[in-house]
Amino acid sequence: MSLERDERWFGHPYGLSTLFFTEMWERFSYYGMRALLTLFMTAPVAMGGFGWSIEKAGPIYGLYTAMVYMTALPGGWIADRLIGQRKAVLIGAIIIMSGHISLMFHGIRPFYLGLFLIVIGTGFLKPNISALVGQLYTDDDDRRDSGFSIFYMGINVGAFFSPLVCGFLAQSPRFKQILEGYGIDPAGSWHWGFGAAAIGMALGIVQYLLGPRKLGRFFQYLAIALLIGSFVVMIWLTVTYDGPEVAALTGEQVIVAGTIEAGTILLVFKSLAMLILLGCGILLFRNRQIYYGILGVVLAAALFFSNVGKVEGPVALIDILVALVGMVLLVFPMVYFTRLFLNPEWKDTTRKRLYAIPVFFFAAAIFWSAFEQAGSTLTLFADRFTINTLFGSTFPSSWWQSLNALLIVLLAPAFAWLWIRLARSGREPSSPAKFAVGLFLLGLGFAVLAIGAMFTGDAENSMRVSPMWLFTVYLLHTLGELCLSPVGLSTMTKLAPRKLAGQMMGVWFLAAAMGNFIGGMVAGLFEAFPLPLLFGAVFVTTLVATVAMLLLVKPVRMLMSGVN
């Protein structure tokens, strides 16, 4: 991308338009599929779903959303070292589209294949398209921040429209009637929703190729060939699949398809994780990092006394993958921060600032673990216990997931104005204080939801409640997100030395991955506990995190050593 001052697109480089619309369509595909994923897995077989219990579907949802963020780390590394950001974005987009195409077909193999491809493709695209936006500007270009603001607006535009389109195709009785009128089984409407996500990503690819012609004619032809080839391969993999139909299996039979004796493997995972955590704790103690040392030892002890290694008999391969990813998310941050703290090259001020980073990391992980319930427990609450009507017309439950993006578009300018106004008067809250406010607002949303859940009745006599309950929840969650999310990555990159700026983006993605994974585990409890108790527990957890963050405001500000 050129670094000359280009003002052809609303005063910004013309390349921003290409990246804006590419990211918009990629987020359209992601959030469209995300809006349907939990509903599809838990829908009865007779209605075209897999008929899985939320106990099984929740961890799969958490695993998928966590790995979407985890693959951003190797995706960024491959782009930096091997293929470059521009090629990585295009290759990632093609792989994502292939994944959505796979989800258009009904079956276990195309389902898992589709999720796998979307995870890999997002790892290539997500970190590198943001890097390309940065390359459009010089470091001292005064348009840089506003350029990123425009780019992130594209994310929310895609996130707003996708649940509306994909949700209509997947859930709307009107569209099911249209399918039935043409002799098509209306139970397959889910896959039309997934198909809309595939079309969205395809439009993003076309937009990317038809933007500023900097990819070269040969590479454009190669990309088109890959696009067509991926489509053919996906059709071949799915149409020729002659395995058992989902309709012929119960949810439990489906989820355990492909099992091994897993007790020994899980015991090995647990033992390795325990030893690594214990070693990190001892090293930190020896280097006077007492609090982090205690954390490492406590986690190691908790792992030792857990019953993970007591699993006996056949266990689904997906369950082993869930356990493995959970171990990685538990161990890797401790290993990374241990190495970071023990690096002898840091000066005292730099080292103090680095000590503050884990506080923001774990606070963000807690935040995302609750916030990302939007795609699981909140969606199920909307589908099963909410009156989904607007001005007398019924709408699909997946449409609720558009509300967050709409509220961000409406409220983000007000928050930007508020922070500037407070900064001018010397009253702008510090970064840890903003984190505390964000956590509190998020928890308050779950308190409201817990109260609303009290009016839904029991399992035998369930009732639907007013949509105002969920609207209030989404409003509070969005306010919390605007307090925490824009501040988080900015603060972490400011605290770290300049040469670690790229790593801090990876660490931020890792916090989101950890939060999504934990959120999936929580979602698996949706049917195991009374909803007021479940949502109340999330509220209490975020409230404890809020209090802890408030108590840490002053110590963390001292560690930040002047960084705002």
Structure commentary:
This protein is mainly alpha-helical. The protein folds into 3 domains: 246 residues, MFS general substrate transporter like domains (Growth Hormone, Chain: A); 82 residues, no CATH class; 213 residues, Growth Hormone, Chain: A, CATH 1.20.1250.20. β3 and β4 form a beta hairpin. The protein is globular, with a radius of gyration of 24 Å. About 7% of the residues have low confidence.
Structure at a glance:
The chain has 564 residues and is an all-alpha fold.
Largest sheet: 2 strands, antiparallel
Q: What's the SSE pattern?
A: HHHHHHHHHHEHHEHHHEEHHHHH
CATH-defined topology of the largest domain: Growth Hormone, Chain: A
Shape-level CATH architecture of the largest domain: Up-down Bundle
Q: Give the total of beta strands.
A: 4
Task: Give the topology.
Layout: H1 15-42, H2 54-70, H3 72-83, H4 85-103, H5 108-135, H6 144-171, H7 173-181, H8 189-209, H9 217-239, H10 251-255, E1 259-261, H11 263-286, H12 290-305, E2 314-316, H13 317-342, H14 348-371, H15 377-385, E3 389-390, E4 393-394, H16 403-424, H17 431-453, H18 467-495, H19 501-523, H20 531-560
Antiparallel strand pairs: 1-2, 3-4
